[in-house]
Amino acid sequence: MEFDKRTEEVVNSILNSYDGGKVIDGIDMSRQPDKKAIIDIVGKLLKILYPGYYSDRIYRQYSLKNNMAATIEDVIFNLNKHITLVCRYGHAFEDMSEEELRDKIAEITFEFLEKIPQIRETLETDIDAFYEGDPAAYSKAEILLSYPGLMAISIYRMAHELYLLGVPMMPRIMTEYGHSLTGVDIHPGAKIGKYFFIDHGTGIVIGETTVIGDHVKIYQGVTLGGLSTRGGQAMKGTKRHPTIGNNVTIYSGASILGGHTVIEDDVVIGGNVFITDSVRSGSRVLFSDLCDRNCVVSQK
Asked: What is the CA angle 103-161-191, rounded to 5?
């Protein structure tokens, strides 16, 4: 039958394409990072961060700590396992012996988990910023259970610590998972201070070398990005994204671009502006139809 013959030809053609040595040909599943398993670790880490909100409701209060202890041990085991898989993609691990690699990965695993109390303290400040900054929030519990901005920040803050520890790939998988859930794209390499408030959230992009101070509020559609990526890999390791000071508010649709662009403290950036130059402390920057450009309308 012609259909059966064509089926066999197509199957063989596709199978033969796996032998070309291309990056996308990798089919050694035992050595590949498991994206689904990493996302599962993220879910368990959220339970650890917020035990009263993400933990299973079947457990009574008195058994919560026992349940959390088991969850933490599970994360230690699986995190260690999956860091081992992603480290084959990191140049820093290439020359290590098996024993050295095993010890290094164990150290990374425990250093990360030891950061959890500090991450929780920082997230408490973020929740405070959400509650104080949004009159539509009726309670902090509502923020924890329903605000996409806090979800994105929570996943980012965990991924950032793994990024600082030199773990390849996994931090980006984590924040891209957060991106898919919330519409907020925060690179794990960005440095973000305390009391960070994302209002609404959808469409926000924060690039790898962005630096953000304390008490910063960002609205939907804001881009903190690079001026150009035409340099490709030659630009790796350079400061490509802006620096945002303390007590800055950036309204919806604003784009602030470039590694040399510094928005100093106490600045208000209006909606839909396009900024590639630094802005002095205390300024208000708006878009004016009269001058067809960004205008500093007042400054201290």
From this structure: 145
Distances (CA, A) of 25 to 9, 14, 85, 89, 91: 20, 11, 17, 16, 21
CA–CA distance, 233 with 97 (Å, rounded to integer): 29
Rounded Cα distance between 179 and 190, Å, is: 14
**H/E run at residue 121:** helix 116-133
Domains and CATH numbers, the chain: 31-184 (1.10.3130.10), 203-300 (2.160.10.10)
- What confidence score (pLDDT) does residue 290 get? 46
Instruction: Provide Rg for the chain, Cα atoms.
Output: 23
Q: How far is CA 283 from CA 49, 204, 252, 286, in A?
A: 37, 22, 17, 10
Task: Indicate left, alpha or beta for 156 from its phi (over 0: left) and psi (-120 to 50: alpha).
Answer: alpha
Let me know: does 78 contact 170? Beta carbons within 8 Å.
no
The residues pairing with 275 across neighbouring beta strands, listed in sequence order, are: 256
Which amino acid is residue 108, in one-letter code? I
User: Is a pLDDT exceeding 90 seen at residue 24?
Assistant: no
Amino acid letter at 127?
A: I
| pLDDT, tens only, 250-268 | 999 999 999 999 999 999 9
Strand, coil or helix: 89: helix
